[in-house]
Amino acid sequence: MEQTVKGMSLDRSTDLKKYNLYINGEWVEPAGHEYFPSYNPATGEAWCEVAKGTAEDVDKAVQAAHHAFLHSDWASMTFTERGRLVYRLGELIAENIEELARYESIDNGKLIREMRGQLRYLPEFFYYYAGLADKIHGHTLPIDKQDMFTFTSREPLGVVAAITPWNSPLYLTTLKLAPALTAGNTIVIKPSEMTSASLLELVKLVEKAGFPPGVVNVVTGFGMPAGNTLTAHPLVRKVAFTGGAESARHVVRNTAENFAQLSLELGGKSPNIIFEDADLDNAVMGIIAGIFGASGQSCVAGSRALLHADIYDQVIEKLIDRISRIRIGDPLHDDSEMGPLATPAQLKRVEEFVSLGLAEGGKILYGGKRPEHLQNGWYFEPTIFEYADQTSRLTQEEIFGPVLSVIPFRDEAEAIALANDTEYALAAGIWTSNVAKAHRVAKEVRAGIVWVNTYRSISPMAPIGGSGLSGYGREGGCEAIYEYTQSKTVWINLSQESMPDPFIMR
Ligand code: TXE
Fold first, then answer.
1. Which atom of ligand 1 is nearest to the CA of 166?
2. How far is CA 19 from the centre of its chain?
3. How many A from CA of 290 to the centre of ligand 1?
């Protein structure tokens, strides 16, 4: 069976495309000479092979990044020059969107048209940060000491380790790569073992843009040993991690050992709150985009719809009317509206949650199984579970699939209480035509991002991140620059008088 990625023939049965590691500006074989297959979620078949990075490879990559940070042209470049390189990378991505989108779609099963949309927007992140490059400044302090001139500056941290997941590989890498480079750091990226290809293709553009060797390195492979060695490496000064809570706990322990800085983005159980005065057609589109977009594999998935009792039946009817018409199918087809899950493990997880939901007394209003006509890939129907309260695991735990829980509420206070009744705090949607209510609820809801009458909007200018089980730290926006720099305070004594004897108290 043959599949084509713009200009390249991929004959899966014989000759899989093989990807090496990218270390110090060179494509190198892994020290253990081992490779592992990457699978196409739409067919369940292997389509490329990826280098299995070892601890030795990770060490090489970190050493290269450390050297580049201290001694390469990168180290002596002005911020403006670095910004130009970041901008150039954005331009090159813009020129290669179709190809990168196809790699993402084949590797993680997301719709080609969604990936095109996401990747068309990706260069904006590079342009935004490139523009910030020479505006990273400190302050002159009105210091309370005579004859002292005191100022702060912001400096890069050193080697950054980026650990990325499989759900939006290039977008989630960009949130780390663009600000880390803009701030003058060097980086080692460990992409998900499930979806490494699109990043390795993007790295070819990093090369083309002219970044000095060692500034950007990619070590592919598994959490153990590659991710673990990278996050435990003593030369790594900052780890930016997006993934699951279990892996994150390992990463927290590793960075604690070396006191490396850390930001964690771990997903959520985000509520979409629909008040009785909302535009219900818009709200229904928001719920669907929130949970069935990307087949629910999004950190900000709106997996709980909290519906005011007065409009409960109406919303359910509208929801089912639209989702029963969702075209599930091959993500590479332009008319498909929902693709497969990215991995068999994720499909199994969704199936297990559905069984659990039924055992817990949840009622399925729609879906709940694999689509009959698509048994080869890792597809699952859009699914709605109805619950009277939020005590079940299905309403409390992140599923990361197309499974929505709907729960009724009677007033604003109850809506806020339900919204906050979770250990996660990443995102929330509020649907109302009452401005005062929108502000009140936005203030009370525990979440790092609140969308009012919209859902899943993103922008390079807008920070993303959460608290509690959703992690800590922020990506995106100017704030991200602070995550990749540290402040230095410089005191200059302007006095012409001699230093006083330190043992004579003034
Ligand atoms: O993620 P993992 P998994 C959630 C979602 C999903 C669950 C598990 O609920 O069902 O997590 O997903 C690397 N040291 N999210 O198991 O394993 C790993 O190689 C260092 C939410 O697929 O956490 C990969 O590169 N790194 C989320 C990355 O961590 C380690 C996105 C993420 O994989 C490691 C993905 C270790 N010990 C899952 N172990 C979001 N926030 O969007 C693994 N890794």
1. 35
2. 23
3. 21
Predicted local distance difference test score (pLDDT) of residue 409: 98
222 in ligand 1 pocket by Cβ < 6 Å? yes
The 3-state DSSP class for residue 307 equals strand
- Per-residue model confidence (pLDDT) at position 495: 95
* Amino acid letter, residue 487: S
Tokens read off for 98: 């179709």
User: For residues 461 and 478, what is the distance between their CA atoms, to the nearest angstrom?
Assistant: 7
Amino acid at 68: A
Tokens of 317: 């009817």
In the DSSP assignment, the letter for residue 420 is H
- What are the structural domains, with CATH classification, of the chain? 21-37+47-266+470-488 (3.40.605.10), 271-452 (3.40.309.10)
Compute, in angstroms, the gap from residue 231 CA to the centroid of ligand 1. Answer: 14
Cα–Cα distances in angstroms (integers) from residue 353 to residues 202, 316, 394, 397, 424, in the given order: 35, 21, 7, 9, 18
Question: What local confidence, expressed as pLDDT, does residue 375 receive?
Answer: 80
For residue 299 and ligand 1, the question of a CB distance below 6 A is answered with: yes
- Residue 165 Cβ inside 6 Å of ligand 1? The answer reads yes
Q: Are 331 and 112 in contact (CB under 8 A)?
A: yes
Q: How far is the CA of 429 from the centre of ligand 1 (A)?
A: 25
H-helix or E-strand spanning residue 274: strand 271-274
For the chain, state the CA radius of gyration.
24
The owner of tokens 């919209």 is: 454
Residue 394: C-alpha distances to residues 52, 348, 371, 387 (Å) = 35, 15, 21, 9
| Ligand 1, pocket-test mutation among 200, 247, 469, most atoms within 8 A of CB | 247
Angle, nearest 10°, between helix axes 197-209 and 169-182?
30
The residue whose two tokens read 């039946």 is: 313
What tokens appear for 385 in the block? 């579970």
Q: Which of 379, 405, 211 is nearest to 305 (CA)?
A: 405
Positions annotated as catalytic residues are 265, 299
Which residue ranges in the chain fall short of pLDDT 70? 1-14, 506
Instruction: Quote the pLDDT of residue 505.
Output: 79
In sign, the C-alpha dihedral spanning 408, 274, 455, 333 is positive
